[in-house]
Model the fold of this input.
Amino acid sequence: MNLPHPILEARGLTKRYGDGCPTCFDHTGAAHGRNRCPDCGTVWACRDVDLTIHPQEVLGVVGESGSGKSTVLKMLHYDLEADGGDMRVRAEGVEDSNLFDLTSFRKRQLRNAVMGIVYQHPHLGLRMNVSSGGNIAERLLMAGWRNVGDMRNRASELLERTEVPVERMDEAPRNFSGGMQQRVQIAKALSNRPALLLLDEVTTGLDVSVQARVLDLIRRLQEELHVATLVVSHDLGVIRMLTTRCMVMKNGQVVESGLTDQILEDPQHAYTQLLVSSALV
Amino acid sequence: MLTVQHLSKTFTIHQLDGKHIEGVSPVSFSVPEGGSLALSGPSGTGKSSILKCLYRTYLPTTGSIEYESETAGVLDLATLPEHAMVHLRNAEIGYVTQFLRVIPRVPATGVVAEPLLRRGVPETEALEQAAVLLRRLRIPEELLDAYPVTFSGGEQQRVNIARAMIARPRLLLLDEPTASLDKASISIVIDLLRELQAQGTTMVMIFHDPDIMNALAGQVLSVTPREEIPA
Done:
């Protein structure tokens, strides 16, 4: 089978808060039900996580609060500095080396060129007092666009696609509803045609009807654009709807990974079984 | 085309102190290319679980599932890497369940067209083909653009069947897809499945109705009841 190479390959992703001690690994992790070492107090937010995403693929990471799923995503986006691990991205103009070792200048360049991110809280992804169009233009500027007319056209095209009334593109997102803010964030994340899209709990906290509309939008964009995507969510419904493969995290570790329907119908790990049987639907 | 050896499935339920439940007792069978095999036997013998193992919705506990793929030779579906399995599902293997389980808020034509879209067929063409197939399955015209969640059981099953057969998979797994259909619909489904067979689709199927089974299956495998095994 001639399968494409992964677009993202990350190995051994590790993030800790504290210095660590020789017994840390023996006393933390999913098997112990904690990620804080009782001897030295170090918190292992995430340890030794491997993940790969293939072109056009949507990979899910599911787990409860504090499982380390958002930490993984934030390290990939350089929002958090990794304490260990290796990240490779196969895209045009990206070096074939550990992308965690780049200079901070190059990291910012790379992030602007190949990644798009949507956060749970719109204020992390948007400047609330800058117009929606301006938010998108800012991102395009960082990705190297220079022509104001082009940027404005791209912004209105994206806002239209994400169902934000184009006549409100000069208005600041602070005036928008939560669902609409989320859609502006999605427009901004997609503006530079990223090779990799990162979605961090994008529907958490929205009303169900608004949540449904945002999920439908993401699905439709997925069908049209085929962007390789990482979806982090605590919600199995979101994982079921958006992903084909997923990983289950607990206490900073991946306890199980597989095809999404297999994880939901034939979960292997005790924690996944608990998670699946706890779901409402 | 498909050679299954010593396939078995045991579930371990951690919330019940690691209780083991045998889903499939070891089973072996093979189906030639273009052939069709029916799994028969009383409820609870693990027939559906066998299909789920073939599709990797269940992880087999033991055994191998050798599948002659179109482009990559013989592959073991029991151990194939996940992204390769996803590729096979998109390109070669179809699966119809007893009940339709679809993404909400997608109209019937969209649900049926999806496997074609995944294979790169342009959207208008895919939707047109979906409408043609749904009409052939006697789905009323006004329902084509409606959400299948609101459909009757029989209508949902026909949407489900259309979705599984539209892309003409090389291997089609059928789990009792006609249970809530009337006689007229059943005979349309049988005609459609026979057309696929004539075009070379290999099938593994479960049909409780012996008439349907005899109309479609080239060989029948009796699945024996599972045994209790101690934890």
Summary: Helices of chain B lie at 47-55, 82-91, 108-118, 123-136, 153-165, 183-198, 210-216. Chain B has two domains: 1-92+169-231, 97-168. The two ends of chain B are 36 Å apart (CA to CA). Chain B has seven helices and nine strands.
